[in-house]
Design goal:
Elements lengths: L10 H32 L2 H22 L7 H17 L1 H11 L4 H27 L5 H54 L7 H20 L1 H13 L2 E7 L4 E7 L2 E6 L2 E5 L3 H17 L7 E6 L4 H6 L7 E5 L3 H9 L1 H6 L9 E4 L3 H6 L5 E7 L6 H4 L4 H9 L1 E10 L7 H12 L4 E9 L3 E9 L18 H6 L21 H13 L2
Parallel strand pairs: 5-6, 5-8, 6-7, 8-9
Antiparallel strand pairs: 1-2, 2-3, 3-4, 9-11, 10-11
Helix pairs in contact: 1-2, 1-3, 1-4, 1-5, 1-6, 2-5, 3-5, 3-6, 3-7, 4-5, 4-6, 4-8, 6-7, 16-18
Length: 514
């Protein structure tokens, strides 16, 4: 063997490089979990992820700088830091869930405090590993190897976190799993350096206790999540599941069932008929009053099937396309007996076809036009939903609307979020659509807004389907009258490039919260 060839890596070196991979993966999981929880609770996912990541990187810088003060007993320091990261980082999602349920005012402070602590500890890890490895590895090889394993760990987690970890385990168990991995690294470090460690039995006991605490948390994760959600939702939780896109919670109380997506109320059984009748019938009946029949209808969003239920009141409807991003929603509302009763088994109608895809992309495709398009998206609480309220979306909507067709969209509260409501109206008009804004009182939501858009003038219908509980031809006309405190105000067009609506919505609803 030539003298220039490098000797095979020693077991200690291999073990430490593998530890770099694990600690990098764990560090990124804690960062992503904090960002995801911040976006769930505080809204505006871009802002929350940006501030969490910025705080985390700043804290890592502090940790790297502090590593210079660790001069002796480096393996012992590394082991202690791993145990602290395991415990604090692993319990971070659970702690934040409980804080939001029991002490919501402290959530933001606790979030950034934990991010700072975990980031600082993670910033200490890699410099200490590099200094331990320096005993046996040349500097040029040391830097390249450590950074390679660091980046590979980050890559693995960045792919697994949204595609497998959160959908399969949920945020609480994901945090605990990676806390256990950090603790396992600490235990492995104890074994590798057991002859160098002072008080090695104390270190072993600390590692075992940390593993025990995290394991207990793992088996109690469901009870912990239930405790937090029971406190948050007030009514008894009858179903709580996580899909690839959202947390779905169904509660039941004196007012019947309530559906929440990511903590936001979507409907309440006692008055959902007001919302869905107001959403569907002003457009459907207006199309029918000219002697025509809305034969082809699309419902965008509305995976609960309530809007489809109202559409199917019109016997002339030949086909309904339900475009819902989350297959978990359509599966749930087509299989659960209580939910099937709420939507009158609409998702089993032979006229219905379910398309589980992004509505924005679906509209952009070439396809058939529709007589009525009902748009029932959540409010624009973040940029991924906000894109569905942009002029680009409405331009695609217009292309899929028949020449005499009507589109209708729910558009938040014109009383609480007045600027946001009229921003949607202005944005629709910017692509050449005529608009007919209106509002209805839904007790669970308050005063709620809707907008009808079309190429032709809108005239309120003189007739409605039989059996409605809320709307009559006489009361429907009153919905288009806006009192002074909800009257139109100047508004900017919501574009993909600015997403002004998301910022406006957050400001207005933020002021409305107690």
């Amino acid at each position: 063997m030539g003298s220039s060839e490098r000797a095979p890596p020693r077991p200690v070196e291999v073990a430490l490089l593998a530890s770099v991979f694990v600690v990098a993966a764990c560090g990124l999981v804690y960062e992503l979990a904090a960002g995801a929880l911040a976006s769930y609770v505080l809204g505006d996912s871009v802002l929350q992820f940006s501030t969490v990541i910025g705080t985390y990187l700043f804290a890592m810088g502090i940790g790297s700088w502090l590593s210079r003060f660790f001069e002796r007993q480096l393996p012992a320091h590394f082991l202690r830091i791993e145990l602290l990261v395991a415990l604090i980082g692993g319990l971070l999602p659970a702690t934040l869930f409980l804080a939001n349920a029991f002490v919501p005012d402290s959530f933001r402070f606790l979030l950034y405090g934990l991010v700072l602590v975990v980031g600082t500890l993670v910033g200490l890890e890699i410099p200490l590993v590099m200094r331990i490895l320096k005993r046996n590895v040349a500097l040029k090889d040391l830097v390249s190897q450590v950074l390679t394993f660091d980046y590979l760990g980050a890559l693995a987690v960045s792919i697994a976190f949204p595609l497998w970890l959160v959908p399969q385990l949920g945020l609480v168990r994901t945090g605990l799993l990676f806390g256990l991995m950090n603790a396992a690294v600490a235990l492995w470090a104890w074994w590798l350096f057991r002859h160098e460690l002072p008080h090695r039995l104390a270190h072993l006991a600390a590692a075992v206790l940390t593993l025990g605490a995290l394991t207990t948390g793992w088996f109690g994760a469901q009870q912990l999540t239930t405790l937090a959600e029971d406190r948050f939702y007030q009514d008894r939780i009858v179903l709580a599941e996580s899909s690839d896109w959202q947390r779905i919670v169904l509660t039941h109380g004196r007012a019947g069932h309530r559906l929440y997506l990511n903590g936001n109320l979507q409907f309440a059984e006692r008055d959902e008929y007001r919302y869905h009748e107001a959403l569907v019938h002003p457009a459907m009946a207006a199309f029918a009053q000219g002697g025509g029949t809305p034969r082809r209808v699309a419902v965008l969003g509305g995976g609960d099937g309530m809007a489809v239920r109202e559409v199917l009141r019109y016997p002339g409807v030949e086909s309904v396309a339900l475009v819902e991003l989350d297959p978990h929603m359509t599966r749930l509302f087509s299989q659960n007996p209580a939910l099937r009763a709420l939507n009158a088994d609409a998702l089993h109608s032979p006229q219905l076809s379910i398309v589980n895809t992004d509505a924005f992309k679906w509209l952009e495709q070439d396809g058939d036009s529709f007589d009525v398009i009902v748009v029932d998206f959540p409010d624009p609480t973040n940029f991924s939903i906000g894109k569905l309220y942009t002029n680009a979306f409405f331009a695609s909507l217009q292309r899929r609307l028949s020449a005499s067709g009507f589109a209708v969209m729910q558009t938040t509260s014109p009383l609480v979020a007045r600027q946001s409501f009229w921003t949607v109206v202005t944005t629709m008009e910017s692509v050449g659509l005529r608009t007919a804004p209106y509002h209805a009182h839904v007790p669970s939501f308050g005063e709620w807004g809707f907008v009808i858009a079309s190429r032709r003038p809108y005239t309120p219908p003189a007739q409605l389907p039989p059996g409605l509980r809320f709307l009559t031809p006489e009361t429907l006309r009153l919905l288009f009258d806006f009192p002074a405190d909800m009257a139109r105000v100047p508004a900017e067009v919501n574009r993909l490039s600015n997403q002004v609506l998301v910022h406006t919505y957050e400001q207005e609803w933020g002021r409305a919260l107690p």
